[in-house]
Structure formats: structure tokens, C-alpha cells
Design goal:
Elements lengths: L1 H7 L12 H8 L8 H6 L2 H8 L7 H13 L5 H16 L5 H9 L4 H12 L6 H12 L4 H21 L5 H4 L4 H10 L11 H5 L5 H5 L7 H15 L3 H14 L3 H10 L1 H8 L1
Helix pairs in contact: 5-6, 6-8, 7-8, 8-9, 8-10, 9-10, 10-12, 12-15, 15-16, 15-17, 16-17
Length: 277
């Protein structure tokens, strides 16, 4: 246990070849979580599943089916592997009485990779309503691991992008939440362009839909949230510069907040570049 605590306090390697063998072994046993992208990409998902399956409420047949799928996905990109493994857990366990037990075991596991598998189980579950997706994403949105936090909004957005537009008011309580990670989740989830995912055309064309959501975070004290709001507006500036310029002008005229000033400055960066070109 003492050795694990030492490993948890490590700084991540800059190159895969520099990851200490004991760190990589612990990652593949699911004893610790990754601390950077280099480690995240180095984890052997097949080894990780073999090491952790005994601690999951899986029967032998289910474990073999999931193991086969993980092996099949080995040549895919990291996001495809995560999504595919989550889908495998969902499909194999969809009618199982142990489905929720396995989900909780994954969602609370020391390994961030397993927590990602749990999040992608929800992404594959077509029966979940938008409200249910948001509720189940909360633990991932506030996870201590940045990689899990990034997965949190993606696993809601991918299967429910239309609901983000039609039910955007359900994100308002998140934008008012005392936990800044929840506020950031709400903004990042609704970005018109987003990262690693399809754009939301309706928000690119009509960003006014999200204006009440953005208003709640216009003076946010946390840079993590400020950057998200600024990036949201920068996305929108590429299709609706009039909206972004008008909103930023109004915000700056209504408040002297240094936080709002920072958001507006970053939000207008693409428009400034175009003006200077």
C-alpha cells in the first residue's frame, strides 16, 4: 500500500519509453490511474481487463465476450477503444441482473480507464433520457482525473446532441452549481463545435439558444470555466460573429468584472485575427 501511495504521487513521464516499469505494471493491474496522456495511451486494455475482471460481477461467459471485444479493438484509436469497450459491457450485460452492479464497480474503480468504460456504457444505452444521462454523468464530470472529466460531457453529447438544443434548460442548474467542475461541464457539453465530436448545427446557426446558459457563467471566478465560456463563444464567432461581438460588448458595458473581461478577450480571438489579416 505504501508503494502504491508513492506511485500515486508521481509526475507523469514525457515519453512512453520513460514510464517506469513498476508504474506501467500498476496501471495495467488497475491499481492506479493515469496522470497524463502519455500514460493514458500506454495502458494495455487487454491486460487491464484480465487483471480486474475478477473484481467485477461478471460470469465467465460475459467476461470472455468482453475480453474478445477488447482484443478486437486493440488496433483502433484510443477513443474508439473506450467507446467500443463501453458498448461491449452494455450489450453483454443489457439483460443481466448484474448490469448495474458492474457499472458501479467500473464507475468507482481506482483506474480511470475503467471509469471511462462505465461512462461509455451509458453512452451506449439508448433507453436513457436526457435527464438521466445528465444525472449519471455527474460523478464523471466532477472526477479528479481530467481524462474522465473530458469523457463525461462527450458520452452525453454523442447520443443526445439534439436534446442539448431542445432541453438546454436542463443544463441551467449545472451552470449555477457551486462546484466549478459542474459549471464547466454544462458549458463544454453545449459548445457549438466542441472537441473530438460532431458539431451542433443548431447552436452554430442560432447561438441565442444557449445565451441564458452562458449568462450564468459570464463572471465566473474560475479560469477553467472562463476558458470554457470563451471557447464556446469563439466557436460561435466562426458562424455568428454578430452574436458574439454583440454579447461581449453588452457584457463589458454591464460589468467591470476582470473575469468577464478575460472571457470576452479570449472569446474574440478569432475575430481579432481576421481583422488583423
Amino acid at each position: 500500500m505504501a508503494d502504491l501511495e508513492i506511485l500515486k504521487a508521481r509526475k507523469g513521464a514525457v515519453r512512453r519509453s520513460e514510464i517506469p516499469s513498476n508504474v506501467l505494471a500498476a496501471l495495467n493491474r488497475g491499481e492506479i490511474e493515469t496522470v497524463n496522456l502519455v500514460e493514458f495511451l500506454a495502458v494495455d486494455h487487454a491486460k487491464l481487463f484480465r487483471s480486474t475482471k475478477a473484481h467485477l460481477s461478471l460470469d465467465e461467459k460475459s467476461a470472455k465476450q468482453i475480453a474478445a471485444k477488447i482484443k478486437q479493438l486493440s488496433g483502433e484509436g484510443i477513443m474508439q477503444r473506450l467507446a467500443g469497450t463501453g458498448r461491449a459491457f452494455h450489450q453483454v450485460l443489457e439483460e443481466s441482473d448484474n448490469r448495474e452492479a458492474v457499472y458501479q464497480q467500473l464507475a468507482t474503480h481506482p483506474s480511470d480507464i475503467l471509469r471511462n468504460w462505465a461512462a461509455y456504457m451509458d453512452a451506449s444505452n439508448a433507453k436513457l433520457t436526457f435527464a438521466q444521462r445528465l444525472k449519471r454523468a455527474k460523478p464523471f464530470a466532477t472526477d479528479a482525473n481530467m481524462g474522465v472529466r473530458e469523457i463525461a460531457w462527450m458520452v452525453v453529447r454523442v447520443p443526445a446532441a439534439d436534446s442539448i438544443v431542445s432541453q438546454i434548460e436542463k443544463l441551467h442548474p449545472f451552470a449555477r452549481h457551486k462546484n466549478y467542475l459542474m459549471r464547466r461541464f454544462a458549458i463544454e457539453l453545449s459548445r457549438p463545435c466542441g472537441v473530438w465530436t460532431k458539431h451542433i448545427t443548431a447552436l452554430k446557426e442560432r447561438p441565442e439558444i444557449a445565451q441564458p446558459l452562458l449568462e450564468q457563467c459570464r463572471e465566473d471566478e474560475t479560469k477553467y470555466v472562463q476558458d470554457s465560456v470563451a471557447n464556446w463563444l469563439n466557436d460561435a464567432s466562426k458562424t455568428r460573429p454578430d452574436f458574439v461581438e454583440g454579447l461581449c460588448d453588452r457584457w463589458l458595458s454591464e460589468t467591470g468584472s476582470k473575469h468577464t473581461q478575460r472571457i470576452a478577450h479570449r472569446a474574440l480571438r478569432t475575430l481579432r485575427k481576421k481583422a488583423d489579416a
